[in-house]
Amino acid sequence: MFCKNCGNELADDAKFCNKCGASIDGEQKPKEKKVEDNTVKYQIKPSFKWGYKLLTNCAYAALIILIIFGYSLGEAIDEIPEFVGMVVGVAVVIILIKLFFENIQYKNLEYNFYNTKVQYKDGFLNKEEKELKYRYIREVTMHQNILERAFKIGTIRLFTNASSGYGSKGNTMNGINIHCVENVNEQFKKIRELIDEATEE
Q1: Would residue 54 count as lying in a domain?
Q2: CATH code: domain of residue 196
């Protein structure tokens, strides 16, 4: 048997052409309507905690101090107290500038959850967007280290089968890493419910 519309060879019991979609009596197979998914059902905006960020940047500050101190120690051996004060001052200024820009960046970060997808947006300096369909998410986890618990925040991670390593701003290469989340247990529960509901068969 052959399709009357395109001539494609069909099985004897075929009801529609597997090439053009026409039925055996010439009627076109109705196309599935694309479901619009542009309504945000839930949103997470990370919280910038100055105390937490200062503590987590201590290692970064120490590294700067060691590099500058080690590079210039030979020339400043006779003025170590003044030199150390200068190095520490420079490191503090660098850290404060870094945290200032990071604070602005956090105000532009948002993670929007729709019916079928989650979308990450960063509109500070360089605009960045990332979208992940729920059907590709294989695991949702929540993490709190001791310092995060002290500041009442946590991290929620959405992993795909291809997730490996971490990209910019803490995002996994093929997943999403939402850090500095307040009320992390409640938000983790809500996200899991949204994803489970959307992926139920």
Answers
A1: yes
A2: 2.30.29.30
Residue 79 has pLDDT above 70, yes or no: no
Handedness of CA 33, 34, 38, 39 (dihedral sign): positive
Among 171, 155, 156, 189, residue whose Cα is nearest residue 52: 155
> Which of the two residues, 10 and 160, has the higher pLDDT score?
160
Q: How many domains in the chain?
A: 1
Distances (CA, A) of 82 to 27, 79, 94, 95: 88, 6, 19, 20
CB 178 within 8 A of CB 96: no
**Host domain of residue 99:** 41-201
Average pLDDT over residues 154-158: 94
Provide the strand spans (E) within the chain. Answer: 42-44, 109-113, 117-122, 128-133, 137-143, 153-160, 176-182
User: Alpha helices, DSSP H only, in 17-168?
Assistant: 50-56, 58-72, 80-108, 146-150
> How do residues 100-138 score in pLDDT, each as one tens digit?
988 888 888 899 999 999 998 887 766 778 889 998 899
Cα atoms in the Cβ-side hemisphere of radius 13 Å centred on 176: 26
